[in-house]
Structure formats: C-alpha cells, structure tokens
From TrEMBL:
Signal peptide: none
Example GO molecular function: transferase activity
Stated name of the protein: Phosphotransferase
Organism: Shouchella lehensis
Keyword rRNA-binding: no
Length: 264
C-alpha cells in the first residue's frame, strides 16, 4: 500500500471485520483508504451519506483502491440513535432512487422473505444444527410469511449499529461501512434500529421524523425481519464456534418471540 501511494506515506490498519481498511498519513494530512469497497461508494459520497470520495484507482492485481476524506469525528453513542437526524438520514437513504438504480444495474437481486427462510433452512441442515430456539424462530417466520404486505423495496444498509454512524467536526452525520448493503424492505433496517435503540413507546415519534406511520403492517414486517436477523446472526456465530454469542442470540430470539404483541 505504501508503494502505491508513494514516498512519505505511513499506512496503518484502520480496523474493521474485513481487514481491508487503512489510515494513510503524510504529515498532518490523512486519508481513509479501502481496498475493494462498495462499488456504489461514488453515489453514497455524492448524496452526502458517507465522507467525500476523493479518488478511485484500479491496481494491476485487479483490486480497486478508494480514498475518502478523513473526518475528525466520532461514532454515535447508542442514545443518539433516538435523535431525529438519524431518522432523517436513514429516510434519505431508503428514498434514494440513484442508489437503488445503481444497485439494481449491478445485478443485485432483492432480498425476498421466502428465499431468506429457504437459505436459513439450508444453513441449519448444513450445520446439522438442532436448536429449539432456532426452530421456534423459523416456525414464526413461516407462520407470518403470508401476512407480509408487498412494499416498495430500497437499498438497505443491513448493519445500522451505532458504531457505523459518524459525526464529523462540522456536525455532519454519515452512515459508513456499506459492504453488507442489499435491496430489501426498509423494515429490515427499521426493525433492527427500533428494536435495538428506541423504546417502543417512542417508535411513533421516531418514525414521524423518518416520514412513516407506525402501521400494523410496518410493525409486523419489522418484527419479521428482526427474527430473521437474529437467526442469521446466531447461525453465523455457530459456524465460527462462538458459543457465547450463540447463547446471547438464543436468549434474545426467545425473548423477542415470547414478548411480541403480534397476534398469534
């Protein structure tokens, strides 16, 4: 990486699950460098969703290197996810026709609930997993599948953890780390955010800032995708023998099903 940038640059790992992100420094000047980042980073940058994209270059190896403006900022705290600004930025993302058009032209297929269930069953079979909580979750998904209303699909981030929301030194808000983005029902993002960060009695207020009403349909879809997310995460950790995380998701999934107000 240093050879690619030229003399005088210091390059250090920036962390993250992929190990493909770096901080490049030359004196007081810094860049955020990433190898093979999301191919629609340019659109995200143009719409102000991520820090400004400065340049993109393809290496002889075929890898694509992107450089973004380094922001002097911080991650959002969990309690800040309740703010109206967070809701409005997520609404802008879900409403972006340019994002959806680019993602679709790249050949990405929408995440269909029935296909999600099928894939989870395949994983359970592949891992020879016998888990009562996962079985309950899959049964709940199947029970409610026919009750899901058709909805307008959008580009969803897929991992709206507060650590992926950044506020810079000028108070601009960004949502970073788009490697897991997909075309799906916006309830996928909304469910994970609301269930994780927003007290249920505040859902209507938060959704008002987002620009949506808390209908029975939306409540059901958020519940459905939250169960699907919990099962998927449990299976992911099971495949990597992270038993503590598996137990944590078992507990959360069981509570989610038992405490739900969705009509049986």
């Amino acid at each position: 990486m240093e050879l690619f940038l030229g003399e005088g640059w210091d390059v250090l790992p920036a962390g993250g699950a992929t190990g493909e992100a770096y901080v490049a420094r030359q004196g007081d000047y810094q860049l955020f460098i990433k190898r093979n980042s999301s191919p629609f980073l340019a659109v995200l940058s143009a719409e102000g969703i991520v820090p400004k994209l400065l340049w993109t270059k393809r290496l002889e190896s075929g890898d694509v290197i992107t450089a973004q403006r380094w922001i002097q900022g911080r991650e959002l705290k969990a309690k800040e996810m309740r703010h109206a600004r967070t809701a409005k930025l997520l609404a802008n993302i879900h409403e972006s026709a340019d994002l959806l058009d680019m993602f679709t032209r790249m050949g990405n297929k929408p995440l269909i609930p029935s296909v999600m269930i099928e894939n989870m069953h395949l994983q359970v079979s592949l891992y020879c997993l016998q888990n009562e909580v996962v079985d309950r979750g899959l049964s709940e998904l199947e029970r409610l599948l026919g009750k899901l209303d058709d909805t307008k699909y959008a580009v969803c981030h897929g991992d709206i953890n507060h650590n992926n929301w950044m506020r810079d030194e000028h108070d601009n808000l960004y949502l970073i780390d788009w490697d897991g983005a997909t075309v799906a029902d916006p309830a996928l993002d909304l469910g994970l955010l609301l269930y994780t960060y927003i007290p249920e009695e505040e859902w209507e207020i938060w959704l008002h800032s987002y620009g949506e009403e808390l209908t029975d349909s939306l409540r059901l879809r958020m519940y459905w995708y939250m169960i699907a997310h919990s099962i998927s995460e449990l299976l992911w950790h099971h495949s990597r023998h992270n038993e503590e995380q598996v137990r944590s998701y078992e507990k959360n999934l069981s509570y989610l099903i038992d405490s739900s107000s969705i009509k049986r």
